[in-house]
């Protein structure tokens, strides 16, 4: 489906930011459009069917990668739960294999996850014993009872990101926190990589935010942003390595494809690992510099409900 209006502000003032961005699974090309009014960027066209863009092995991380992710997730969850200061209720939208929800449960939190399909939800229920609901957020009771709502690398997958944010504001407790982690299209890494930026990932990523556009989107539905950070050890340095490799080989995401189980081991994978070993320290330095300058490839917003302020002044 071709898009002629900005999904966030409905403006018709749309420019082409990137004319040919390749999908690393199918090789199909997509445009990245940019709204001149609110600076939100989005993938065009939106495919009618997404199945071919998510092969069976997509995100079938091996035990090694999953083990590393688990360490990073536990670290993030520890920081988030400390902000609340006591065990509470958490909702994770798009909880995937449940690694993050499991970290919450270990800290005594009452967890609810949402996953699109019943088969994935049932798998997480049976393997990790977590409370996971299949389908959309409308299947979660509409009352403001969650102390934390987490959208961890989820918003970019939605063509209409405002819709989920509107539902979240209705379910967040008055003193609760919304946590949104998403890629930053205004980052140094995005500008360096252009069409071959690893985290651009069209068409699985429809929505491409910059700090300014995400802040506006949150405010539009009733959130106040009070904290923005750019630190992401698990995604940012690897993004520099993979994006640089993409530009050298002019072929997207060989290492990512291998780690996801889409590509088998071959000479290019071997050479990519060799390059990654050389590049990892400079990539770490570049990432840390970009965090200092608020130009990191991933950003984390923490927001509260605007209504909280109204309630406090009553
Ligand atoms: Zn707009």
Automatic annotation (TrEMBL):
Gene3D superfamilies: Vaccinia Virus protein VP39. The chain crosses the membrane at residues 269-291. Keywords: Membrane, Transmembrane, Transmembrane helix. Signal peptide: none annotated. This is Methyltransferase type 12. It comes from Candidatus Danuiimicrobium aquiferis. The lineage of its organism: Bacteria, Pseudomonadati, Candidatus Omnitrophota, Candidatus Danuiimicrobium.
